[in-house]
Specification:
Length: 623
């Protein structure tokens, strides 16, 4: 690719300058035998709480001690101590080479700029996705690799973990991967290097995978399927549906075992090492991702199924409380599987649980088998869980003072019946051509569905991370910051006309207007859709902790609504809840519902559709 070839050419102009400095005088030799050594940074909740930050010093000292070569694959790179060590190694004659991410290089990361100034050979690539690796190979003997970028933010302010592995064959494996990228082969153009994926390093069995040419995601799914006792996870970007599905399946399997074996009443997680614990799936996630990844993030599904999870409490950003200011994030991508079983193992590396990591990014993933390593990671999980915030309480704290009337009620403040699913338009297609479509194609209206929530209390209620669910899975979730006001009829809309395209605007006019929440604003096929059931109606509204607040239907045909008439005379009706004095009755009973009998569509039905859509979205139901 042109940019890669250009940078490779620039790197080839570099001049190696020999030096006579002794690089080994301050060398910190952690071990002499092959071993996996683990490092965690501890950003604390504020800058003054930082500890365990010697990982950067150790990396610098190892670079300073390099005798023949340093190969570094880097994404974000702005650590001054590390960049200075690489430059000095280059100037004293060590063969220093770098494979970097094209966008970070073009974005002028200070580390890349400094190396370029000193003519350190560099190759950059994967400009359409990301070269996401963060590893060093030193003297083809030592590997430094982890979840964190080589930047002050990731080294000091975001939670990460790194490992140093002293093993010739693993170092050669990483060296071969680096050489491919340095030669200009990134992402899908890389080849399997022919090295084994399995190694023994002292007391630890180690598996090494590179993405996308090796099936790292497949190994994750295999390990999750094989989990027998427990799964503890800490995660940054979590958008891979298959991983979320495995978590949900394992949670159901473990819950059934707990019920059968009298352990259902035990806590799912304790800070101590009590052997009397449930089989469980538990995790800590980064809060920035439920904002930045919107409904892609799998935490909505996990919460909806009652999987215990906590939001990380790290507030150590450059501006405390604002994770967008730099720092304050949980940047780990780590699982501990069967910690309390016979075969504990840990999965970690640069590899987020996402489609991009699986298919297009340059990534690495490691699996460690062995109790010593698993126990070290488990201790760190205990720290994060102990400092984390229960999801419901965390989103509640975020909303303190959000509305003029005071902080909205949270999950712990409400009871079933306070929120009522009051109307459902489950059949979004009415068989007619869109009368407002002036594009010449005259597309039919397709999939304009909605449901409505009524707040039966006299207080605003925080809907952050509430979910609408079928009997088996989450259908959609409410992003942080969503509030329903007292007495409000809150309209949740999904209007899907055509497949989303970055190059083409949406056709025509939707059937409804002024929604309070749109399920899929960009009409992106990767995001969840309502797809409300037409023949087996059962829905649940769950709060941020997974508790059921309201139900609709009994799993059979809907209790009302749908299409009436034929040909050009088809009219679509919603299904309305019968609410008397703020009480919606039992939503799973037919007696609690009726077909809308409004004379025409309400004000939030666009005028062109009011004769063919009989519904009252966002307002009291028909009488």
């Amino acid at each position: 690719m042109n940019i890669s070839k250009m940078i490779l050419a620039l790197g080839a102009l570099g001049v190696l300058v020999s030096g006579c400095n002794d690089p080994g005088t301050d060398y910190l030799d952690l071990f002499t035998e092959p071993r996996v050594q683990i490092f965690f940074n501890e950003p604390g909740s504020r800058a003054e709480g930082q500890r365990n930050l010697n990982h950067e010093d150790i990396l610098v000292e190892r670079i300073n001690a390099a005798k023949t070569s340093v190969s570094a694959a880097l994404y974000g790179f702005s650590s001054q101590p590390v960049r200075d060590a690489l430059v000095q190694a280059h100037l004293r004659g060590v063969n220093v080479r770098v494979a970097g991410d094209a966008k970070h290089f073009l974005g002028h990361d200070s580390g890349f700029e400094e190396l370029q100034k000193h003519h350190v050979p560099m190759q950059v690539g994967n400009q359409w996705h990301i070269q996401h690796n963060k590893f060093f190979v030193i003297d083809t003997k030592i590997v430094f690799v982890g979840t964190g970028n080589i930047s002050p933010t990731d080294l000091h302010r975001n939670k990460n973990n790194w490992v140093i592995i002293n093993h010739d064959y693993i170092a050669q494996d990483y060296q071969d991967e680096f050489d491919q990228m340095f030669e200009g082969r990134f992402t899908a153009s890389k080849l399997r290097n022919g090295n084994p994926n399995f190694y023994t390093v002292g007391d630890t069995k180690v598996e090494v995978y590179f993405s996308p040419q090796e099936d790292a995601m497949g190994r994750i799914l295999e390990e999750l399927e094989a989990a027998e006792n427990d799964i503890h996870f800490t995660i940054f970007a979590f958008t891979k549906d298959q991983v979320g599905s495995r978590f949900v399946d394992k949670h159901r399997e473990f819950q059934a075992w707990n019920e059968e074996n009298g352990q259902a009443d035990l806590p799912p997680f304790t800070i101590d090492d009590s052997p009397m614990q449930q089989k469980k799936v538990v995790g800590v996630y980064d809060r920035s991702q439920i904002h930045g990844n919107f409904l892609y993030h799998e935490v909505y599904r996990l919460n909806s199924r009652g999987i215990p999870s906590r939001m990380d409490a790290n507030e150590n950003s450059r501006l405390p409380g604002d994770y967008q200011a730099g720092g304050g994030r949980l940047h780990s991508k780590t699982m501990i599987i069967d910690m309390f079983g016979d075969n504990p193992r840990v999965i970690t590396g640069s590899f987020n649980w996402s489609a991009a990591a699986t298919l297009s990014n340059d990534e690495t993933m490691l699996i460690f088998h062995g109790r010593r390593v698993a126990e070290e990671y488990y201790r760190e999980f205990q720290n994060m869980w102990g400092g984390g915030k229960q999801t419901g309480q965390a989103v509640c704290n975020i909303m303190d003072g959000y509305v003029e009337t005071g902080s909205p009620l949270c999950s712990t403040d409400i009871e079933p019946g306070d929120l009522i699913i009051s109307e459902v338009m489950w059949d979004g297609w009415n068989g007619l051509i869109d009368p407002s479509d002036r594009t010449g194609t005259r597309d039919p209206i397709d999939n304009d569905e909605f449901f409505e929530i009524y707040n039966a209390t006299d207080e605003p209620i925080n809907l952050s991370l509430f979910t609408l669910n079928s009997a088996y899975d989450a259908k959609m979730g409410f992003t942080p910051g969503t509030v329903i006001m007292p007495g409000e009829y809150f309209l949740v809309l999904d209007h899907n006309l055509v497949t989303y395209s970055d190059n083409s605007p949406q056709n025509g006019q939707h059937a409804y207007n002024s929604p309070d929440f749109v399920v899929n604003i960009p009409n992106d096929p990767r995001m969840p859709r309502l797809n409300l059931p037409n023949s087996s109606m059962y829905l649940e509204l769950r709060d941020a902790n997974g508790r059921v607040i309201d139900r609709v239907g009994d799993g059979g045909p809907p209790f009302g609504g749908g299409r009436r008439g034929d040909g050009s005379g088809i009219v679509n009706y919603s299904m309305e809840r019968i609410i008397r004095n703020g009480d919606g009755g039992d939503g799973t009973q037919r007696s609690s519902w009726k077909t809308s009998n409004a004379p025409q569509g309400g004000e939030r039905v666009n005028e062109e559709f009011r004769d063919i859509i009989i519904a009252t979205p966002g307002e009291p139901n028909s009488q």
